[in-house]
Structure formats: structure tokens, C-alpha cells
Amino acid sequence: MVYSISAMRSPSVPSVCNWCRSTSNGIRNTNISLLLKKEPFYRKVFARMSSPDSDSSSLNVATSNKVLVPGGQGDGSLSLTDQLENPETGLEDHLVLHDVNDPTIEHEKKLEDEEKFVEPPSRCHEIDNEQDSASSTFAGEAASAPIDGTESIEEDEARTRTIPPPGTGQRIYEIDPLLNNYREHLDYRYGQYKRLRDTIDKYEGGLEVFSRGYEKFGFTRSATGITYREWAPGAKSAALIGDFNNWNPNADIMTQNEFGIWEIFLPNNADGSPPIPHGSRVKIRMDTPSGIKDSIPAWIKFSVQAPGEIPYNGIYYDPPEEEKYVFKHPRPKKPKSIRIYESHVGMSSTEPKINTYANFRDDVLPRIKRLGYNAVQIMAIQEHSYYASFGYHVTNFFAPSSRCGTPDDLKSLIDRAHELGLLVLMDIVHSHASNNVLDGLNMFDGTDSHYFHSGSRGYHWMWDSRLFNYGSWEVLRFLLSNARWWLEEYRFDGFRFDGVTSMMYTHHGLQVAFTGNYSEYFGFTTDVDAVIYLMLVNDVIHGLFPEAVSIGEDVSGMPTFCIPVEDGGVGFDYRLHMAIADKWIELLKKRDEDWKVGDIVYTLTNRRWLEKCIAYAESHDQALVGDKTIAFWLMDKDMYEFMALDRPATPLIDRGIALHKMIRLITMGLGGEGYLNFMGNEFGHPEWIDFPRGDQHLHGGKVIPGNNFSFDKCRRRFDLGDADYLRYHGMQEFDQAMQHLEETHGVSL
To answer: What is the set of active-site residues?
Structure first.
């Protein structure tokens, strides 16, 4: 996560894709907006639109008197601890289960109360189960033989997916006896985790079922029609609108149950065709405490930005079976030493444009394989309306970014990576969300505390984004299901969780210097709700997909972060060793004679026993405008004049290339059990990253100049690394040799 770029806001950048016009037929749909056929993505069109913003009378929907009120500070909602440990709290009248961090709880509530709690009622089990749930597997997957000991697609799909029960949570004290001084906090944390697991088991059928929320919420297709469900307890009335019903808010009115879940079933047309054609725009219109609003469904699987519009449109994405991508290749086995190529599809072209999933599949994946990396980590997958957020201001959590293509295009990319033996990791954002109201989750049901904490606790002042309430039952369902969705539907091989430090502490790691004192990790500033969520999501990932990889971006050094959950840890496989990059930047600002090898080695090897780390000399953070890559720190403007082999190098170039190589080699050798590099930095990419943006007008009349929406600095000049007449080529060859050395001899400690 970049702690500065996300706070910048500028007007949304129109897609650089070209759009043309077309038509299609449908019985309920007289004005289909988006046709998603097999043509290239830029030919997918908007046509004959009727306005989704047309006026309508207020909706009159009979709602239950037992509507659950979303929680937040000062709203009377119960904390998760109160609801689990105090039967008299009247749990069924409350939806949000939050704030396990009340300072009085940790001292007053003891583990001997563990049997005295009332569990929350099930949501999904109360929903009408007569409708068929959407299949969680791919229809008609092609047969493929396992290679190199990998599990075939058929074996993977046939395997029974179960999540093991909680363990004792006590092994952390054997691993690190110093943790005994904080046993009260850690045992409390694990006790709350176990109670929540028990509650989910009793009322939701277990974590495996609970994490399949996408089979109930959003749009689900059955043999007889389409069911749409949405959790919006703050809404007074709701209706499904879109191209399929000419945006008529009185045509398809939804009903609400006692848990604040709105629902409607649309039967198939008379000829058996679906009531909502594939590619139609859809929204939910709600009468909320903030007024009438049209929102993209929270569980939408695809959304696009129409030409000339700023807010995105939700798209009902359900192509015919013959057009759906069929996976052909099994997932690779998890490597002993993971070497990650961090990438961004949109900026992966050598040309100044937004690249596509297809081009990345055909051009960039073979490059990654040739360079010797065994995993590709892809940023900005979840849909984000603000391109310059680097994908960190997510608006639609279940939808892949439409800038680069369709969901099936992304599946094709992942399948090709698996064919090459590459793991595909997703940079997933569960630490915060875009504060967009029209096309995001913010104020979704008209309340400030729907998916997020209310007030200042629910707002990240540096990132200008909303912060999830990890104590809310439905927020847990949403986020756990989201993680599973990407693993199951798209066959990602794991995640790099962004901004985990912000999640684990109520101060979000801002203006705080972590010194390693254990009281900084286990006290009143720890957001125990968030830590428990991380334990749950790692249960889902590792229980259902044992070969999956989970990496956490944590700068604090939280003890137990990479210890299995059953042993009392948070459950990640790896922590990003963020201190290394900071150390190199610190040294690069000093004179050569002030570099101390002992200090370098200490930083590289300073990690917790049995907790694995991903080492990196630099990532995308250092490549952003306003910062400098290592190559730029070392060689500065000489990179533009003296990198050709047909002219003499300067002492700055010779020193810079040598140190660029050695910094990477010693980082890989000593820094951790895995290694990461951001695309292009392997050959010392000479340009920074500057997303297309316009002028930003701040309060008080100050203007931050933009770049006239230029894509010139939002690309990767791979041609420089491939040009054998440039010194960049030698730097690329060294990095390639380094990756193959690790593959062959395992040089990392």
C-alpha cells in the first residue's frame, strides 16, 4: 500500500478503450446496454440506453418491524463480545457484532465465561432454499493430466473441501516464551476466535458454508429464473432496476426479511430465456435515510464505465455456456522458495495505454517465466473507479477490473500462467474501501455504518477511504466469501493482503514508530476484531486450498503473524519484509564510506523465528512519482545519456550498475524465505510511475497540477531490458541468472 498516493484524488479517467455501437434481442430487454460477445473487449458497446436516472415516485414496500439496525459508535449496537457472552442482550434484535476492543472488556471478561453466550441467528439458512444455488465449480472443465506432481483439475474439483476445527492456540508460547507475559491478551484473542467459529458452526453450518455467500447474495441463477438478494438494513424500500425493465422502479419491487436482507425472484421468460439478459446494466434503487439512491449491487461480478460517464454501471454477467472460459491446466504446486514478479496489467504495455488481460497473457507471462520467477502477483484486480489509486480504492469487490477486459479474459490469463508453471497471486484489498457513494459500498443503504465503522473510526484520513467493521456478521460473510470467490471462481493461488498494519491497530500504524516492544502489539490499540478476521480468512484459504499462499503486508512486526492459526497465530504464510527497502533507501542517501555491512546484515536477517518473510529491495511503492527507484537513486540523470554500450560509461553508471546487482543478490540471499520484484525494476527501469490525472483543486484555492491525463509514464519499457545494445540488458540478464541460481541451488536463507 502506498500511504500517499491513495490520499490523492482527481477526476475519473475515461477508459482508453474504443467503443462502437451494436444491438441485440431479448424479450424483457428492449434496450440492452452492453453486449459481451467473443469480439475484442473494445468492441463491447453501450446501445440505445434509457436513462437510469429517470425520476420515479417513492416506493411503497411493506417492511418488517424487525429490521436490524447497522451498528457503529454510539448507535446502540452490541459488540461481538457482548453478544457472545451475555445472553440477556437480546441478540436477535441486532445485526452488527462489533468492537471487541472496548478497553473494559479485556480486563472484565474472563475466559471462564466461555460457555455463557448466545449465538447470532443464521442469515442464509433463513433464506428460501427452494431456489437452486449457483454452482461453485466450472461447468464442463476440460480434462488435463497432472504435471510435476500437481493435482489435476478433476481431482481438485472432486476433493472434499473442509476447514479443520480450531486447535488449542497454545504452541505460540513454546515458540516464543516471551509471549507468556501477554498471555491474557493472546488467550482472550484466541478464545474470541474459537467462540466465533463455534457460532458460525451452529448457525451457518460452518465456515465452509459461511464463506459461500456469493451463492445466496447478489444474482444467482437457477433453472427457473434469477434471484437477487442484498443486505441493506437501513433501506426503507428497494427495487431492482436496469435495462431489462427499462429502469422502471415500480416493475420489480423487492421484499425485506427480519435480518435486513432484500430479495426478489424473476422467473424466466415464456420462451425459457433468462429474465435479465447477459450484459445488461443493473442497479438497486433504495429509499434510504439519506434519500433515494441508485447503487451498484454490492456482490456484482462485473462493472463498467460508460463513455462520458464517471460512475460505473453494474453489469449482469452470465454468458452462455459455450462462451464461458473453461480452465484446462491444473494449479502448480507451491514452491519451496517463492520468487514473485509483482505486476500491474494496465501499465504492463510498452505503449502509453491501458494494457489488456489478453496482451499480458501473451506477452508478459512468457517474459516472467523466462526471467526465472515462479509466481506472478497481480495488482489492481478488484474493480476500482479511480485508476490512479493503483487499485487500492476498491469499489466492486467481486468484479475484476473491466479496464483490462472481461472476467473470462482474466481466467484465460490465469490458466496460461498455470500452463507455464507460475503461481498467480492476487493483491487483495480488505483493509479499506473507496469512499465513493454512487458506485462503491460507502453509504450503500444510506447509513454511515453499514459495512464500515461510523464516525472517525470508519474513515482513514490519509487514504481518504472507509474502514470495515470486522465485528459485523454480514461484513465477515462478505469479506470471507470475497476471498474464497477469487480462489474458487478464478483459480488464483493465493493473496498478498494489502494494508494489514492498518487493519490490526486502531491507530492504523499512522504516526507510530514500532520499536519491537510487545506492549505495542498486545494492548488497547490492537483491533482484535480485525485480527480475528485475519485468522478466519487464513482458515478459509488454507483449509479449502491447502496449496494456496497468503502474504500479509505488515510493517509493525506483529509477533505470531506467520504462525498457524491452530497454534495461536494469525495464520499468514509470509510477511512482507518491508524494513529492507527502507534500509536501502536510508543507505543510498549516505556516503559509501558510511555504509556498515554489519548493519545491513542485521536488517536483512532480523526476522522472527519460524515466521517466514518475503524479501525485496524495492516494490511498486518506490517506483511511484514522488519517490525514486534504486536505479534512480544510484544513477540519476546519467541513465538517460550513458546506458548505450557504444559510448563510455560514467563512474556513476559503473558504480550504480554494480550496486544495483549486489543489492538484489544480498537481499535475495539473506532477506527472507521468498523474494519479490516489481516489473521492470529488474533492469533498472528509468521512468517513474505517474498515472494519468488532471489538475487537483484543493480547498483554499491550491491546485496540484496533473499530467494532462497522459499515459506516457504509466507503462513499462520492457524494450529497454531486451535491447542488447543497452546496459539495461546486462542488468536484466544478471537478475535472470540470479533467479535461476536460486531455483537450482536454493541460495536464500
So the answer is: 498, 553
